[in-house]
Amino acid sequence: MLFYEMIQEGGEIMWVILFCSLVSTFIFIERWFHFHREQINVGELVKGLVNVLKRDGFIEAVSLCDNTPGPVARILMAAIQAYQKGDEDVRQAIEDAALTEVPRLERRLNVLGTIGYVAPLLGLLGTVLGMMRAFSTISSQKTALLSAVDISGDIRMALITTAAGLCVAIPCYVAYNYLIGRVQAMTLDMEKASSEIIYYFKHRNSNRDSDK
């Protein structure tokens, strides 16, 4: 009941701030579960692929990548398929796959960052509107006597919207930086795995050339 009263006293701006808080909560939960599902042990995956590829099990390696979640597995699968087809530039295949995977990781994060930036401004807008209403109330009084009760509602609106904007913005900034950190960590895993598979293919080709 108290929460609903604060929404009512905060005016129309409070509904906008509430909507922003719901959107940011949904984005954080969705992204967190997405990253949790796609987090894997990259070292074990690369080691398993190398062992399979040493036996020329390209189909098995592709199947292993296909059954493993995450952008690292999909990038490695693109590299293996490119090498299997005889493409000389495996690195290019990896870069093309990364152009698809990185935007997937960053999906909706710009919205979360925008809400974290805009929420305090919405609170400030509510403060300005509340103060404008307070001065309007003062100017509309025809008597010289003016009690604090007459403008307390307008001032309360100004304070509520400011507090609400900050209460939405602070968690948004924390959540945004946390998710960006997860994206950077997964991007680093992609780069490490790509370097290892490229190194393996080069070493494999050099061994074949020396055998000839």
Question: Would you mind describing this structure in some detail?
Answer:
- This protein is mostly helical and about 210 residues long.
- It has one domain (about 1-205).
- About 85% of the residues lie in helices and about 0% in strands.
- It is built from eight helices and no strands.
- Helix 2 runs parallel beside helix 8, helix 3 packs antiparallel against helix 4 and helix 7 (about 110-140) runs antiparallel to helix 8 (about 150-210).
- The mean pLDDT is about 85.
- Report the sheet with the most strands, covering strand number, pairing sense and barrel closure: none
Low-confidence stretches: none
Large-scale geometry: rod-shaped
Q: Topology as H/E string? A: HHHHHHHH
Structural domain tally: 1
Approximate helicity band: over 70%
Percent of residues in β-strands: under 5%
**Record field, number of beta strands:** 0
Radius of gyration: 28 Å
Structural class: mainly alpha
Distance between the termini: 82 Å
Query: Number of helical segments?
Result: 8
Oligomer: single chain
Task: Please state the average pLDDT score.
Answer: 84
Q: Would you kindly provide a brief summary of this structure?
A:
The chain is an all-alpha fold. The protein has helices at about 1-10, 10-40, 40-55, 60-65, 70-85, 90-105, 110-140, 150-210.
What key phrases describe this protein's structure?
mainly alpha
Chart the SSEs and their pairings.
Layout: H1 2-10, H2 12-38, H3 42-54, H4 58-66, H5 71-84, H6 90-105, H7 109-140, H8 148-211
Helix pairs in contact: 1-2, 2-7, 2-8, 3-4, 3-8, 4-5, 5-6, 5-8, 6-8, 7-8
